[in-house]
Write a structure and sequence with these properties.
Elements (H helix, E strand, L loop, with lengths): L1 E3 L6 H10 L5 H11 L6 E6 L22 E6 H15 L2 E3 L5 H4 L6 E3 L24 E4 L16 E2 L2 E5 L4 E3 L43 E4 L9 E2 L4 E8 L10 E10 L10 E3 L2 E8 L17
Antiparallel strand pairs: 1-9, 2-3, 4-5, 4-11, 6-8, 7-8, 10-12, 12-13, 13-15, 14-15
């Protein structure tokens, strides 16, 4: 599914409220605490598409063709926090917006713009010279229905089929989700492949387990397919560091994940391939720190 990143406040907060409200999991939490006798047990509303995307909130209900609705459920807080930290990978991503239209301008300018900004108005959501250089952000029409992005006035946005108005430069990404039933359920990531491939671990990579028993070792990853001229990020995945955390919020101690750099192969399997993730062959994994990404302290509220 193609989504459009937009973690900027207050839009993400509005979408979060549209999907979950403020009391969606209150009864579930109370029932679980009463059942277990554990008052530390915490659950929260997890929605999809998530609030940090333009497609979150009530957008799916407004589709002219095949309208749907946001999916939501109550999950352990540690899972919610881990997913939020996975989303932080996109927060750290930057796009070289000047790469586009180089042939039109006749230059080789570079201008990497972060996907998330602390500025009062995000440069992605403002027309004109909002990128402080090249190119110029402007409106464009799209054949398929898209959400009304922040900063686009209601009288400018068009919901006429075939003439949907949005920004020329958008933070689109293709999102995939898998839920392995076991540590060897490789088919959850790569349909039709059966058991997981063996991983041959090297120094500096995540702690070794049993070959073919670690399809859960990477919690999430972003693959920019070798387009270093266009995308930049300090890290692109969260990998198991072999430890467990006591931040289970009443649940069993969850695994701990750290930031990591996952070097994906540019093409298919190579001699350097140590395995595959979501069908993408991996050449190397480098752990960056010992951050526990199942702790609330590591995630800002707008990343959920």
């Amino acid at each position: 599914m193609v989504l459009t990143w937009d973690s900027d406040q207050p839009a993400s907060k509005t979408r979060r409220n549209e999907a979950c409200g403020t009391r969606y999991c209150k009864t579930v939490k109370a029932d679980l605490q009463a059942m277990t006798g554990d008052k530390t047990l915490k659950v929260s509303c997890d929605e999809f598409p998530f609030a940090a995307t333009e497609e979150g909130g009530k957008f799916l209900t407004t589709l002219n063709a095949n309208p749907g609705r946001v999916q939501r459920t109550c999950v352990p807080d540690w899972q919610q926090t881990l997913q939020g930290n996975c989303n932080q990978i996109l927060t750290a991503l930057s796009t070289n917006v000047a790469y586009y239209e180089r042939s039109v301008r006749g230059d080789n300018a570079d201008n990497f713009v972060a996907w998330s900004s602390k500025a009062k108005v995000s440069p992605w959501l403002e027309t004109g010279n909002s990128f402080n250089g090249v190119p110029v952000q402007r409106y464009a029409s799209y054949p398929n229905q898209i959400p009304r992005a922040g900063g686009i006035p209601e009288d400018v946005y068009s919901d006429t089929p075939g003439v949907y108005i949005g920004y020329m430069y958008r933070r689109n990404f293709t999102f995939g989700l898998a839920s392995p039933s076991s540590a060897t359920d490789g088919a959850a990531w790569v349909p039709g492949t059966g058991p997981a491939e063996s991983w041959t671990l090297q120094d500096g990579e995540f702690p070794p387990g049993t070959d073919g028993q670690d399809v859960n070792t990477i919690a999430c990853a972003v693959n920019t397919f070798g387009q270093k001229e266009i995308y930049s990020a300090p890290y692109n995945g969260l990998c198991s560091n072999g430890a467990f955390t006591d931040s289970g919020f009443g649940f069993a101690a969850p695994p701990s994940f750290s930031r990591c750099i996952i070097e994906f192969a540019a093409t298919g399997k190579t001699k350097r391939s140590i395995g595959q993730f979501n069908g993408w062959h991996v050449n190397r994994i480098t752990m960056l720190d010992e951050m526990n990404t199942t702790s609330d302290a590591t995630m800002p509220p707008d990343a959920k």
